[in-house]
Amino acid sequence: MHPVRKKRLLVITAIVLILGAAVTLVMYALQQNINLFYSPSQIAMGEAPRHVNIRAGGLVVDGSVKRNPETLAVVFEATDYQHTVTIEYRGILPDLFREGQGIVAQGQLNDGGVFIATEVLAKHDEKYMPPEVSEAVKNAQSSMGESKASSQSTY
Amino acid sequence: MFPEIGQFSLILSLFFALSLASVPLIGYWRGNRLLLEAARPLTFIMSALVLVSFITLSWSFLSDDFSVLYVAQNSNSQLPVWYKFSALWGGHEGSLLLWVLILSGWCSVVAFKIKTLPEDVGPVVLSVLGMVSLGFLSFLLFTSSPFARLLPDTPVDGGDLNPLLQDFGLIVHPPVLYMGYVGFSVAFGFAVAALITGNLNASWARWARPWTAASWAFLTLGITLGSWWAYYELGWGGWWFWDPVENASFMPWLAGTALLHSLAVTEKRGVFKSWTILLAIFTFSLSLLGAFLVRSGVLTSVHSFAADPTRGIFILVLLLVLVGGSLLLYAVRAVEVRSSVSFGASGREAWLLLNNILLTVLTLTVLLGTLYPLIFDALNLGKISVGAPYFNSVFTPIALLLMVFMAVGPLSKWHHTKFSVFAKVCSTSAFIAILSAGLVVYYYGFGFIAWLSLAVAFWVVFLSCADWFGKVSAGTKGIIPRARQLPRNYYGMLFAHLGMVVSLVGIVLVSVNSHESMLRLSPGDNATVAGYDFMFDSMEQVDGPNYVSNKGQFTAYKSGEAVAVLYPEKRFFTTRQQVMTEAALDAGFTRDLYVSLGERLDGSAWGVRIYVKSFVRWIWLGGLLMMAGGLLAALDKRYRKRAGG
Which InterPro entries does the annotation name (chain B) (predicted)? Predict the structure, then answer.
């Protein structure tokens, strides 16, 4: 083979090999590490898979936060004003976690339909609502609007 | 009065940017020297006007002029004075003004140094920079002017700066980061000017190199500072989150690193020319993409500014015009700059090509992970997030492979290297590296990845030192004079590579050898973490200038001896009614003790995070070394000479 062509072939082979390996790696990693968001309504309707890493979120229901007096375990409810989901977490909650605030949690649904969170996120801005949560609330609202057109909601 | 001056001079500077973007180019095409020579004064005037505008806004902040909407939103009369100044870039509008100021600063420096360039190239570079300035100035003026007034309903006091930003980190992190981001527009300017003028020879790469090295050094420092800031400020001890905005700064860094290396080949050997140009365009595009991601609010992140769709669309259009335009130019003109010199499969060119392929692949994997949620959402497949595990599992193997080559590449010679040159030195050092890393890993009980990474780290150190020693011990002169004779460029490389290793060691050890625990503690309780006894001594109320604080006192004991007293705080900022965690650190060369308060539980109990992080400082130390390397390379003597003709 002509030396220049041989060299070119070598370069192209190297690029193809590296890219191929990288693409495989990326596809594999993406499959393992994508976390879909489910709203409380979707969870209530059984759309969310169990024992799979997902994210769930909503507004923390007033008066729902219960702490274990001995440990850091905490249980609270998150709502999209249509349905609620119970979330269990063991650890330190973020500074902006409070009742009425929008949060997103990462974790898995157990068999009892309780969300076992490994991480709870709240934004560092009191005006902020996670986009997933605001959309979930909006969606739940519009489906509620169809069924009960007369209900006047201020949210 | 002052805000109007600021607004007015900003509008004027827009006109000067417009002239800068057009006049020298017309001069270039017409062959009119007068128009070409207008580039420098136009640049200086534009920059001076932006500076005036920046100063007036600073004055509005320092004098608590809450009739300015932006000041009212981001400052407060209670705010300490240095935060009043840095609050200027605490929000979208002001940070964009800072961006434009830094851009015009770079333009002026280029204009000062322009004499080293051929007469017709310099003004074209400035003209391209004028186009970039034009884009950002119009973005600033048309969508996000910081000078909008609140008249006649001037508030009595301002809404205060986000407590998270009331920190030393805000003062330094954004300006340095922007220096890097924006600096790459100079490399872009050089690339586009080369395409326009068709003047792309080895000296082109020699002009572009110091600018690229300098911006790379700033970006490295900016990212390092950001990581360090996040670590102590966010209160949960992470140093990198693969957050979209971090990725936005990391992607130009990766592409810029590739650009630095391919520029070296282009300068020394005259190959990879068109690829280098393309990389310069890509690096700048990734900076713009970063700006888009941060400011449009399309991605959820800890950094995002208030979302505003029009801003997003404006940057998207800017991105399309600048990137699309330059790529079109590239498609038309790149054929003319093709290089004809060949290179050997074992020469340094080949190693640097490998470096470029791997860095490009790394950039693309980060890009994919960052944009995947957007793609997913656009296709209506649902809302997803791509977590850190994706990035870790993809990034680690490729980066380690890259570092393996990083050790070998510098040993090679241009064009062709005899295989036997590598074989001996590589095999011996690889053996020692694997063995010594194995010993460390065995002694401390770390896993396989740690072994692999440490072996790579040791290997790079051995080979770099061997290379340096080989260079200084050759010849008859003594070691010290020879060491002084080696070019700064070489030391730049050495520092940057060793910095990379130091960071790698930090990253590996902090991930395999850190101890983290979240506990429920009351004053008087104690807890043991990684051989340290932490005693929760007391809790008291303290008043700050614009907050009230619950301040805890912890004493850390090691084998019965007190080694540190830590004061973590929970601050309540009165203006914004916002709670902030202020972590307490005892920094050390080989370990950090980290205590931060969670929420107050029933009675006197608190949720407390206690971490013992080993070698975490090394991550940033490595960043500093890399920055020093970049600066050394930028200051190499060869670049200061005037180009011959």
Answer: CcmF_C, Cyt_c_assembly, Cyt_c_biogenesis, Cyt_c_biogenesis_CcmF
